[in-house]
Specification:
The N and C termini lie far apart (59 Å). It is globular, with a radius of gyration of 23 Å. It is built from 15 helices and twelve strands. Among the domains are: 63 residues, MutS, DNA mismatch repair protein, domain I, CATH 3.40.1170.60; 53 residues, 5' to 3' exonuclease, C-terminal subdomain (DNA polymerase, domain 1); 142 residues, 2-Layer Sandwich (Dna Ligase, domain 1), CATH 3.30.1490.100. Strand 7, helix 7 and strand 8 form a beta-alpha-beta unit. The protein is α+β, with helices and mostly antiparallel strands.
Length: 393
Amino acid sequence: MTPQLQAERSILHVDMDAFYASVEQRDNPDLRGKPLVVGGGSNRGVVAAASYEARKFGIRSAMPMRDAMRRCPALVRVHPRMDHYASVSDDVFTIFREFSPLVEGLSLDEAFLDVTASRSLFGSAIAIARHIKTRIRDTTGLTASVGVSHNKLLAKIASDLEKPDGLVVITEQNVHEILDQLPVQVIPGIGRETLARLTKIGIRTIADLRSASDSKLKPVFGRYAGRMRQRACGIDDRPVVASRDDKSISAEETYDEDLTDVSAMNRELLRLAEKTAGRLRARSLLAGTLQVKIRESDFTTFTRQRGLHPPSSGTDQLFEVARQLLAAWLAEHGGSRIRLLGVGGTDLVPDAQQDLFASSESAGKAGLDQAVDQVRERFGRLSLGRARTLNRS
């Protein structure tokens, strides 16, 4: 679908196709053509990304790994390499900014671009979309699907209509022709529970939602009923807001067996703090706030956080605060069985220079972290580790 775009604004939504899985298949030719998922190695983990071969079995991201293996016993599982995906993502976002400074990143693999002012340099929005797809393919060996329209909502919906490697344009002239036949859940914000309530009252397509009465919509959406009808009409006036900075950097792990021993919890916290600290240093960032995520065996999830003064990317500093936060939580929730732990840094600031007044002990720890980073960069992440992270068995 490539009709000429007549609207005043030109918005693109670029979505990399099965990004993590596609990177793995690009890097390892033996994985190409096979049903593949990227995710935790345990049956209690979840799918982070599924190749298109895996999606034929109904496997999707966020699905429990156990369910994915049940659907496809021949499924190939690959452990995530988040630092590597982030590096490839940096290459992709560099391409975006060749065509517009207005890039609003949504994740490592998707972004909105406002190319309205770029048309005088690069041609129509459709031409820019084609240029971007070509640049991504030539630079990374990967494919992307692009939606083109006059607002963010329609561009995002369009990018998903002809995956993989798609290019779909929604104009003011064809908006209802394209939208009306689509299921209502393609509108962002309509989740499983809301979908069930809409289905119960006979609203299944966007056309149904657009023509529904207020008496039908208000019990479902409350004061947002009017806004949802606008969405069904393809109306969205949100601007593209450039967001180049990372909001947070984190690492988390779901465990095969619930953690019940405090020493085991602390060992896992150290592993996670080490990963998060390494990712911060790789981006030359410091965390101003440290967060710990805790999920119990019944899926109840808690977060605890504390400011870091000064901001830090040091493994020992992050771990010590994480340990204290977990200890305080355990004092309130004795006997808990922990299914997942996470450590993250927020309120990120650039690591412009080392603190000139840092103690010799702090400087020594920073030097140790840098040495570990260098060894791992050369020989791989598993080449060097802290003894405290080793399981005694």
